[in-house]
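S.,

Sequence below, as promised.
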Amino acid sequence: MKVKNKNKNLIISDGCCVQYGDTLALDNVSFSVSKGKKVAVVGPNGGGKSTLFNAMTGLVPLANGSIKIYGEDPDEAKKKIGYIPQKNLINWNFPLTVRQVVEMGLIERKTLNPFSKKNTQVVEESINQVGLKDEINKNVNDLSGGQLQRVFIARTLTQGSEILLLDEAFSAVDVGAQEDLMEIINDIKLDGKTILIATHDINNIEEKFDEVICLNRHCCAFGDSSEVLTQEVMEEMYGSHNSMFLNHSPGNHGENDGSWVFNWTI
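The prediction came back faster than expected:
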């Protein structure tokens, strides 16, 4: 799958491959995202959604291919990215307040005085933007799941991130909280932010997102959310990656010309 119009795209993944030992976690993944888009990253458990975000932030190395963000490699561009991992990957054993967590976003700004009047204003504006003004001094362990997600969104806003990656932002969050989060995310998008959200929920996805990236260790499809989720794509996305790509293995990501061999007898 070749990426077109590279000069118009903010994020370009071109044949991205990630290996964990003898396992191909991402296999020849190609897609592109334009500035200001709200993108759903969907696929099964183990489909590579979290791995993709880790690759985009430089947390895991690429075995093959490339990812460019503003034309830079992930290690160079990571200051432009705000990453909110899954809740179960965060250590909650620290008695921090909402304000203290959001203030952590100032680290990326390399400010000489994190407690200056200007920085205090940045923190408070970020907290207000996600609707947590009244909880600013509350311990994060006393917040609901939806409120916790809003705290981390506020931290990325304080960081000044131009790209937001949210990994399973809606998991273990009730419907009302999901709607509140989407409203906040939509407001952030209006500020010109580019937002990618990994999610299992594909219900009404065309109403919530501009574009969709469908992952099953490879990129099954990407593009307009109202067009890409065809029956064929759904079968490929929730089918067996190994059965479809018999010629792919660690260190071997397809034939010499980079093409894929499909086996649909699954």
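The first strand starts at residue 11 and ends at 20.

Coffee later?
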